[in-house]
Amino acid sequence: MKNKIKSIPLSIKISGIFIMANFFSLVVIVVLLLGINSLSRRMEESYQDNLHLNEAIEALDNLQRAMTEYLNSKSTDSLSDYYSREQAFSSTVENLNELITDRTPDRMERNIKYMSEDYLQRVAETIEAKRGRNIEKYRTSYEETNRQYEYIKAYMRSLNEERFAENSVRYTALARNFRRFQYVAMSVMIVVLVGSAFIITGLTGTIIDPLRQLARTADEVSNANFDVEIPVSTGTDEVGRLNTAFRKMLISIREYIDRLRTSMENEQIMQKRELMMETHLKDAQLKYLQAQINPHFLFNTLNAGAQLAMMEGADRTYEYVQTVADFFRYNVKKLDAPVTIEEEVNLVDAYISILNVRFSGDIHYDRQVDKRLLNVKMPGMILQPIVENAVNHGIREMGDQGHIDLQVYKDGDRVYISVKDNGKGMTPEDIEKVVGCRWESDAEKGDGGGIAMDNVISRLRLYAGREDVVEIRSEGEGKGTEVIINFSLHEEGADGE
Amino acid sequence: MKKKTISGKKLFIYLILTAIFSVAVLSVAVVYFRIYTAEVSDDSYNRTFSRYYAMITDDYKSSFWQSVYGGALEEALEDGVFVELFGSNLTYNYSPEELMEMAISAHVDGILVSGNGREEMTELIGRAAEQGIPVVTMYSDNEDSDRCSFVGVNGYTIGSEYGKQAVRAREELLRLAEAAGDDAWTGRDKRVTSVAVLFDDSGFAYDQNVILSGIVDAMSKEMRNAEFEIRSVTVDSTNPFSVEESIHSVFMEEQVPDIFVCLSELDTTVVYQAVVDFNMVGKVKILGYYDSEKILDAISRNVVFSSLTVNAEELGKIGVNALVEYNEYGNTSQYVTADLVIIDRSNVAEYMKKVEEDEE
Predict the structure, then answer these.
(1) Residues of A with Cβ-Cβ distance to B40 under 8 angstroms
(2) Beta bridge partner(s), residue B149
(3) Which of A81, A154, B160, B358 has its CA 20 to 30 A from that of A42?
(4) In this structure, are A354 and A435 located in the same domain?
(5) Is the dihedral of CA A175, A181, A182, A183 positive or negative?
(6) CATH number, position B74
(7) SS3 content of chain A, % helix, strand, coil (to 5)
(8) Where does a domain end: A169, A185, A215?
(9) How would residue A152 be classed by pLDDT, with cut points 50, 70 and 90?
């Protein structure tokens, strides 16, 4: 039943409501009109009795006159007139009440009836006497009828008055009721009007409600709020269908937006990574340039020095200056593109040999490099800063006791590079700080010059696209430090090459 | 997403509400209409009767006859008969004879009529009897008529009751005179007490002589040594004002009677008024008739000495019973007496109370 109602088309529903309200008003009006009609009919009938009685009086008068006329003239015309009058009066009399009741008018009517019957009989006798020329009889008889005629007439008039008084009372009561009924009718109409207004409002409300809800939802959606709740309409009318369609549309929009958002987020992540990579590189370069003022000039100068040393036959000087020159040349050219492990290892070799000249061969340097890995690509300027850190913070104050071990090896598809010293070692907190890139910059501490570890770690992470690229191991104070970096054999693509 | 069903339930409730509202409004309107039209349509009878009696008197408006009628109607209704005070609904005043004619012509089942001794009435009673309508005369009789019964009081009894009252009234007059040292009464028993008996000239019910002899007998018996003089005064009642004129003329006489015996309600009230007007309260004793409120009031104020009355309601009842009996058995007692009641200061309060109750 409910579903049937719901599936009725909207137009029929709305017109149905209006037709129903109108029909209802019509029924009420018809009922009221019927009431008013019956009241007014009764008012019209109020004096009906009096009219009948007046007719009866007239019939009586006519009969009496006809009789007198006949007695006077004894003509055939008057006789036939008498007969018709007699007929008329007796038929009027016949209709009178003859019950003895507790109502005065009824009893008066009864008396009139009997008296009239008596009178009719006497009149007939009189006429008969006249026809039989019984003069004596018809004279006395006539007098008698005359008296009876007067009595009946008086009775009828009295009854008429009685009836009139009664009818007036009734008429007044009816008229009062009529007026009262008018007020009632008016009130009923007002009640019906107000009632149907309420019902129409309510009913259209229930029909319009889903539409209104839908509009509200649509408003919210147009304000870019896609997370609104959509009412589920079970109806299959226009609103129900609209609702369902809107709901489906909103769900598809939501899905589409979700997909779009995911892909945009991905792109953003990638852009951000590239940007950071570049930033860090720029930072490294800047730092490097700040450290080595005009390395080209320095490199050319050193080259010139090396040639001078060779011409003078100072081989060791030549070699040293050449190493220094190589070291700077690497710095000048190998920074923006991935380099091979071999180049990085060579740079470390050069750095250590420069340091050994500077510090008279104090640093013991060992390396075990898997030759197969020499051509594997990795970001530049990684190993030298790590070694520089190991020297500066690990073994600098140890004199000729300092050891640096460099290992390059493979495990699975991973390449590991380990820089191990036997210096001061690190506390777990320091390790945590360094790995988390929270170590305060050396440059600010005043012992600057090199590229900071956080720069190195950040670049490695960007390159590998992973976090666990660096591991620092230290067994405590004075027990040395090992920095192990790792990257995949095929990870060189991660930087977007 | 939260699911919400759209107002199917609401719609349903509204439809039900509409139905209830419609039915309620319509039924209220219909009920209201019914109630108010029913209130007016009360124009049909409640009860019908098998027989119909007419009661005819010359003065249906008097409270005496109204009481008689009340008693008659009460009794009749119990027997399933309706008694009508014939002519009371007619616009003109008809004489009892004319009303008799009408009643006969209207084929009533019985007639109660206050007899008046007139020949015309006797003849009409005969005509009614001829047509099979029993007639009962009440209060006063048409002795020679074909009436089936007479209900009333014996004239001699009335006379002797008045006689006894007259003696008591005289004694009181004497006492008052002695107390006042009135010379006129010092001769005491030698002083002649004058009694005036007022008779209607309209052929009054009882034989005047019978009443008079009743009074004379009673008085002679009660006061052997004293002298009294009784005269009958005929009151002209041909028109409504002549009664008062006749009575006034009695008061204008040189010697106003000591005691007035009034045989009708009207006479009593007129004499009473005259006594007041002529400032003779205490000097004249009125022996009244009937127990109307006015007369009771006069008794309690000691202007009227006592009043004689027939138990009016009982009279009516007896009359109706006689008719019913005749209708049912074809015979009834020829003569039924009604009780006489004397009202004086000793019992007037009781009657006044009764009047008040009746009014309520």
Answers:
(1) 42, 170, 173-174, 177
(2) B136
(3) A154
(4) yes
(5) positive
(6) 3.40.50.2300
(7) 75, 10, 20
(8) A215
(9) very high
Question: Within an 8 Å CB–CB cutoff, is residue B346 touching chain A?
Answer: no
Residue A171 belongs to domain spanning: 2-215
pLDDT recorded at residue B206: 60
What is the C-alpha to C-alpha distance for residues A210 and A239, in angstroms, rounded to an integer? Answer: 7
Q: Which residue of A has its CA nearest to B39?
A: A173
- Residue B17 contacts A where some CB pair is shorter than 8 Å: yes
In a domain? residue A452:
yes
Among A277-291, A374-388, B143-157, the least confident range: A277-291
User: B186 with B214, same domain?
Assistant: yes
How many angstroms separate the Cα of B64 from the Cα of each of A425, B57, B314? 150, 11, 11
Alpha-carbon distance of B40 to A170, in angstroms, equals 6
Residues of chain A with C-beta less than 8 angstroms from the C-beta of B29 = 28, 31-32, 35, 184-185, 188
Q: Which two tokens stand for residue A376?
A: 């594997």
| Chain-chain contact of B89 with A99 (C-beta, under 8 angstroms) | no
Q: Are residues B183 and B290 in the same domain?
A: yes
On chain B, the residues whose CB falls within 8 A of the CB of A115 are 102, 105-106
CB neighbours (10 Å) of residue A272? 10
Identify which of A103, A119, A235 has the shortest CB distance to residue B6: A235
Is A24 in contact with B98 (Cβ distance < 8 A)? Answer: no
B-chain residue closest to A16, CA distance: B15
pLDDT of amino acid A231: 67
ipTM of the complex: 0.73
A165-175 burial, b for 16+ CB within 10 Å, e for fewer?
ebbeebbebbe
Question: Strand, coil or helix: what is A263?
Answer: helix
Q: Which 3-state string (H, E, C) describes A157-190?
A: HHHHHHHHHHHHHHHHHHHHHHHHHHHHHHHHHH
A-facing residues of B in 23-42 (CB < 8 A) are 25-26, 28-30, 32-33, 36-37, 39-41
The answer to whether the pTM exceeds 0.80 is no
> How many domains is chain B built from?
2
Alpha-carbon distance A375 to A211, whole Å? 72
pLDDT at A21 over 90: no
Question: For B69-112, what is each residue's pLDDT tens digit?
Answer: 999 999 999 988 999 998 888 888 888 999 999 999 999 999 99
Q: Which two tokens stand for residue B284?
A: 């004249």
Q: Is B213 helix (H, G, I), strand (E, B) or coil?
A: helix
Which residue from A111, A166, A209 is facing B7, i.e. has the nearest CB?
Answer: A209
Residues A136 and A285 in one domain: no
Nearest chain A Cα distance for residue B113, angstroms: 18
**Which residues from B are below 8 Å from A177, CB to CB?**
36-37, 39-40
Would you state the pLDDT for residue A278?
86
**How many CB atoms within 10 Å of residue A39?**
21
Q: Do B84 and A243 touch (CB under 8 A)?
A: no
**Which of A12, A40, A111, A153 is the best residue to mutate to test the B interface, defined by the most B CB atoms within 10 Å of its own CB?**
A111
pLDDT at B139 over 70: yes
Residues in chain B: 360
| Percent above pLDDT 70 for chain A | 90
Residues of B in contact with A188 (CB under 8 A): 25, 28-29
For residue B309, report the phi and psi dihedrals to the nearest 5 degrees.
-145, 155
| Contact flag B6-A202 (C-beta cutoff 8 Å) | no
Structural domain including B90 reads 51-147+313-339
What ranges in A223-340 are assigned the alpha helix state H? 238-291, 295-311, 315-333
How much is the pLDDT for B39? 66
Q: Are residues B187 and B318 in the same domain?
A: no
pLDDT given at position B208: 78
Model confidence pLDDT, tens digit, residues B213-222: 999 999 988 8
Among B7, B52, B90, beta carbon nearest to A100: B52
The reply to whether B123 falls in a domain is yes
